[in-house]
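Try this one yourself first.
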């Protein structure tokens, strides 16, 4: 029953939802506390390969779940959701360590993924496969970005925010076209999502796309904000 759609019910801010969010927070705290150990070459290499493997297992199993239940469809199952894209970007980041990919995974991933974790477009609750897969996928995106912050000392800057915001907007027209061709609604660009999300409070389509742009900038800046504070403190120390 835990691999059949609709057999369990997700409760927003229910006990299972709060528990998984706290669990993810503890994992990220553990990542920070263990950063010195993870900086060892052998440990770092094994950890990055392990994360790549987990992401691949998650993506393959999710598509197998869809195929097995006869719900793999062009309008819903292509890897065109931004979180899907960030999964593959995370694999590339873990493999190459490229700073341009890091800023995308950290800023874009964090800005969008936290909202998805807090208000998920999810119908199944724990211990359904879909619940576990959803939080594993989104949790790994954040983990990948934070890994390069804590372990490798990468930092985004304001130019990173600008580039990421521009990339988001460049991606919108082709995704909207694919939505129109397939009848899909990737990234909720062509209609209001079928399950309750924050978008419900932003007005009807297409007018909610404007506040979504504003929210995108806000969330990107919030993801960057800790580094702005750190730079400000470092500049203050340098003047002393």
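Now uncover the answer:
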């Amino acid at each position: 029953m835990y691999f059949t759609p609709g057999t369990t019910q997700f409760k927003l801010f229910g006990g299972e939802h709060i528990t998984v969010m706290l669990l993810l927070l503890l994992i990220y705290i553990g990542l920070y506390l263990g950063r010195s150990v993870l900086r060892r070459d052998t440990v770092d290499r094994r950890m990055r390969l392990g994360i790549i493997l987990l992401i691949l297992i998650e993506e393959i199993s999710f598509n197998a779940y869809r195929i097995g239940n006869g719900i793999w469809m062009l309008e819903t199952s292509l890897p065109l959701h931004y979180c899907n894209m960030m999964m593959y970007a995370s694999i590339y980041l873990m493999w190459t360590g490229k700073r341009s990919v890091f800023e995308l995974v950290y800023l874009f991933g964090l800005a969008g993924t936290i909202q998805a974790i807090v208000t998920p477009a999810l119908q199944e609750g724990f211990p359904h496969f879909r619940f576990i897969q959803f939080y594993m996928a989104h949790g790994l995106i954040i983990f990948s970005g934070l890994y390069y912050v804590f372990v490798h000392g990468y930092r985004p800057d304001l130019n990173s925010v600008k580039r990421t915001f521009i990339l988001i907007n460049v991606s919108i027209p082709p995704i909207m076209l694919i939505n129109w061709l397939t009848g899909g609604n990737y990234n909720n660009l062509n209609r209001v999502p079928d399950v309750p999300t924050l978008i419900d409070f932003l007005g009807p389509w297409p007018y909610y796309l404007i506040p979504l742009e504003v929210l995108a900038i806000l969330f990107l800046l919030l993801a960057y904000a800790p580094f702005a504070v750190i730079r400000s403190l470092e500049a203050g120390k340098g003047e002393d």
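Discussion: The radius of gyration is 19 Å. The chain has one domain: 15-239.
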